[in-house]
Amino acid sequence: MITPSTTMERDSFARISDYLCEDILMHLAPDQKIKLECVSRQFQRTIYRRQRRLVISPGSNEWTKVKNAILKRFVGDYSVKHRIDARLFDLILSKFRHIDDIVINYNIDTSNMDELFGSMMEHCIRIRRLNVNFFNISEQTLDEFGQIFGHSLRVIKSSYVSDNKIPYSYALLKHCSNLVSLKSSEFMSEQLWNNVYNTMVENENEDDDDQIETVIESNANDSIVLPNLKSCRLSVTSEEGVNQLERFSEVYMNKLEKIQVELVDYIYRSHYMVNFIFPLGICKFRNLRECLLTLKYNGGYDADFVWINNGLNGIANDCPKICHLGIDFIGHQDFFINHVLQALNCFKYLPHLSISVSMYNKGLVFPPLKSVQQLDLSYPRLYQCTCLKQLVQSYPRLTNLRLNWMYFFNDVLLNSLVGMKQLQQLQVGGLCPPDVSTNGLSTFLNTAPQIRSIVFDKKPKINIKTIDMLIEFVQKRPSIYYEFDLCLRDSEVEEKREFDQYFSSVPLPKNMSIR
Asked: What SUPFAM superfamilies does this protein map onto (predicted)?
């Protein structure tokens, strides 16, 4: 006999709305979701809806047991790779149909990509972001995929580049009328962009046969293949690449807002073309907000540095909306880097600056730029505090400082930033654990009145006394919210036990979070 209490227990899930149910279940790992599918019909309806991303990578921890099952190790021609189990991939997509962000990493064997794309076309409702290797996908498959998902795709990336093979990217891109971001080197290939330009010219000729000589920009809005493209990553490592960038800038001069250009290994081979690239290439993007450059210096005369001043001056004068400039130096000497840094004075307003240095450089000089509010500095060989002390004088309005790839970071380097009176957020990403102690953190905090957030990507030398110090510091300022990421998750077993006992007995202030 069924009692009223039994009925209430049986129907308890029915009193919870589908929206609330899927909001609760979204935090489960994918392999746990598969196990719980049989709990109830409501679980079957809601358990997969919030799973929107699928990352297939040997280093990914998102899919735990599912990831281990979907990848099969095998020995290829050169090294051990991982092959995707197409049958299991199809089974997963048949359940997680709401996935719209798919990443298949570069160290995955992609010989069965046509079969995998077939599973996506069969099961996925919509795909917004795609990051895969295009080199082993047939033109017919990309064309069919574009017909189904071209209208929904917003971001396309490719994590693999081949010098011997050109992908059939155009077969997909011609359908992507709403694409916003396109990031990969092979998208600068001559075959792809010639298809784009030829299509545009054909459309123009159909519109008006008497105006064949009309410039491409005049009808770009009607015939452009990617009309909503706002972000693109391009590789300019040959003369043909420079020509493609020139034509690309003519088409997207009023559309593109973010561009990343790689000039690796090209400066030495053709100095004239590099001089040509800046004033007639990048500077044409009038609505440019973000410009990221990768430079490699392979020698030459001092007179060849004229292109730096000309190029940066052109970007500063012709792209008035630019807010973020990033320069990645690969294998440079001090005099070359300093020449580029001094040329940054042409920017009267530059809120966000990113500098990446790959070598051990002792004598770098950072020019004063009062408009910089966020600085991303990647400096793996920084052993002295001289450069960080320069930042205090050069960037007095800095509110957000991100130090990446730090090979060595200690209390002395931390406290060399004391003079930054407006600094609110500090992030330190190191190749090694930072040598920062409780005393070092205490000294920095008590002399940095505006600080709000300190984040380390590896655990510093801290203990329970450090937490006591932070709590005392926060309690004196109850109106300000503080965030500290001290990587307590990386503690040893004994330390974790001590921290767990401590946090269970000592309540944290409401205006403070520690991770």
From this structure: RNI-like (SSF52047)
Is residue 24 included in any domain, yes or no? Answer: yes
For residue 329, give the nearest of 361, 307, 302, 301 by alpha carbon.
Answer: 361
Q: How many domains does the chain have?
A: 1
pTM of the model: 0.79
Structure tokens at 429: 């990403």
Residue 489's DSSP bridge partners are none
CA–CA dist 425, 323 (Å, integer): 19
- Residue for token pair 């792209």: 319
Q: What whole-number distance in Å separates Cα of residue 121 and Cα of residue 125?
A: 8
pLDDT digits (tens, 9 = 90+) for 457-470: 999 988 999 999 99
Q: Estimate to the nearest angstrom the gap between the alpha carbon of 124 and the chain centroid.
A: 25
Helices 306-318 and 271-280 meet at what angle, rounded to 10? Answer: 10
Percent above pLDDT 90 for the chain? 26
Cα–Cα dist 138/123, whole Å: 20
> Using 50, 70 and 90 to split pLDDT, how confident is the model at 305?
low
Sheet of 108-109, strands arranged across: 71-75, 80-84, 108-109
Domain membership of residue 38 (yes or no) is yes
In a domain, 35, yes or no: yes
Q: Rounded to a whole number, what is the largest CA-CA distance in the chain? A: 96
Other residues' Cβ atoms within 10 Å of the Cβ of residue 28? 15
Bridge partners of residue 130, in order along the sequence: 102, 156
- Contact between 277 and 311 (Cβ < 8 Å): yes
User: Would you say residue 410 lies in a domain?
Assistant: no
DSSP output for 67-116? HHHHEEEEE-SSSEEEEE-HHHHHHHHHH-TT--EEEE-TTEE-TTHHHH
Residues 125-150 have pLDDT tens digits of 999 999 988 878 888 999 999 999 99
CA 398 – CA 425 distance, rounded (Å): 9
Are 339 and 368 in contact, with CB atoms under 8 Å apart?
no
Overall average pLDDT of the 404-422 stretch: 88
Q: What length does the chain have?
A: 515
Burial class of 224 by CB neighbour count within 10 A (0 to 12, 13 to 18, 19+): buried
Residue with tokens 């960080």: 388
Query: What's the one-letter identity of residue 324?
Result: H
The CA distance from 440 to 414, in Å, is: 7
Cα 367 to Cα 7: distance, rounded to the nearest angstrom = 74
Spatial separation of the C-alpha atoms in residues 480 and 468, rounded to whole Å: 18
What are the tens digits of pLDDT across the range 6-21?
544 445 555 677 667 7
Residue 467 confidence (pLDDT):
94
Percent of residues in the chain assigned helix, strand, coil, to nearest 5: 40, 20, 40
Q: Which domain holds residue 25?
A: 17-50
